[in-house]
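User: Hello! My lab partner asked me to get a predicted holo structure for this protein. The small molecule is PBG, SMILES included with the sequence. Please write out the structure tokens.
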Amino acid sequence: MSRVIRIGTRGSKLALAQTGTIADALRATGAEVELVTVTTPGDKSSAPIPTIGVGVFTSALREALLREEVDVIVHSYKDLPTKPEPGITLAAVPRREDPRDALIARDGLTLGELPPGSTVGTGSPRRTAQLRALGLGLEIVPIRGNIDTRMRKVSDGELDAVVLARAGLARIGRAEEITETLDPIQMLPAPAQGALAVECRTGDVDIEHLLGSTVDDEGTRAVATAERALLAALEAGCSAPVGALAEIVEDLDAEGRVVERISLRGTAAVEGDGDAVDMVRASALADKHEAEQLGRTLAAELLDLGAGALSGPAQ
Ligand SMILES: NCc1[nH]cc(CCC(=O)O)c1CC(=O)O
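Assistant: Hello! Below are the structure tokens for the protein in complex with PBG.
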């Protein structure tokens, strides 16, 4: 392609690392690529994410794309609202990083080794609810800020631990400071955590085909679709207390042939519980091509088990 491809990115270390992987993949095809930094309201505000709303990190990038200031935008997939945006196409979902959450605790401690009363920092209602549901007597402290700011609260002795996505730490080169990678049995990640969403303008077919043929990963798209269908069916936004993890697993069909299926686990806070101490959990398996339906089915099962349908503005 002869035109220069302008990729819009937020200016954070994490965003630049994420965008950098896409820029490198495009440059490897011989394309000429330019990075354009876009500041979002989410970068300027220090208010808790649930109060400033879903989309704080993504809307400004989408506006720059629609205004044709950039041609490609890269998001953390888990930060994208579930509602599709007119005029914007999800052109690629690159191969996902490790989707699990990670604990960074003082003195190399694991979750089970933190004594009751220990302080754990997180701004995520999903992580808060799951940590509380473990019944370890941990004191959850709401925090915000970029990954470095959060990690500093542990090294400064202000908090005993923080919980962050493994993928983000890996992308900025700090994964070796993780003291425990949390098992999804204890802590289900946010839907699509560890995955990126690469968008372009609808109808910009050159860019769409280029992204589709260079950075798209079919398996990641399928698992992220299942997880986000579950989220959408619960009417929840990116920081609501909903966790989901889908994985491609090998199974045998009726004739004994090996087939790939999607296994999906989900969790949601029980309705009416203001502090979200109680979480319901469920799992299901479906054909690889029924990702969307699988997410909806599992959401219905969670609702039957008492999960609160999260209405109103997504948070
Ligand atoms: N909401 C913040 C956010 N959005 C994306 C990531 C990095 C992990 C990812 O790409 O899923 C993070 C940080 C975190 O949750 O620790």
